[in-house]
Automatic annotation (TrEMBL):
GO terms for cellular component: membrane. Pfam families: UPF0542 (PF15086). This is Small integral membrane protein 15. It is found in: Membrane. Keywords: Coiled coil, Membrane, Transmembrane, Transmembrane helix. Residues 51-76 are annotated as: Disordered. It is a single-pass membrane protein. Belongs to the SMIM15 family. Its main location: membrane. The chain crosses the membrane at residues 24-47. It comes from the Eukaryota.
Length: 76
């Protein structure tokens, strides 16, 4: 379709990686670094959301316990 041979492309990439391993690793890490950054930001946001939901759950449970306690005292 585009005139690219996948086997030839793979062979040339592997040959480059074999002849210049440190430079190849550098380029791979450089290409993947935005994804690492995005992953870190999303993990941090998820942790904050989980923490916020746990605090809300504790707050609601405490409120319910106080309301139940008040109802018991009212009925006495």
């Amino acid at each position: 379709m585009f005139g690219w041979d996948l086997n030839e492309l793979l062979r040339s990439v592997l040959q480059y990686a074999a002849t210049n391993p440190w430079q190849f690793i550098y380029y791979v890490l450089l290409a993947l670094s935005p994804f690492f950054l995005i992953s870190a930001v999303l993990a941090w946001q998820l942790a904050k959301q989980i923490e916020h939901k746990e605090k809300d759950k504790k707050r609601k449970a405490k409120r319910e316990a106080n309301m139940a306690k008040a109802r018991r005292h009212k009925s006495d």
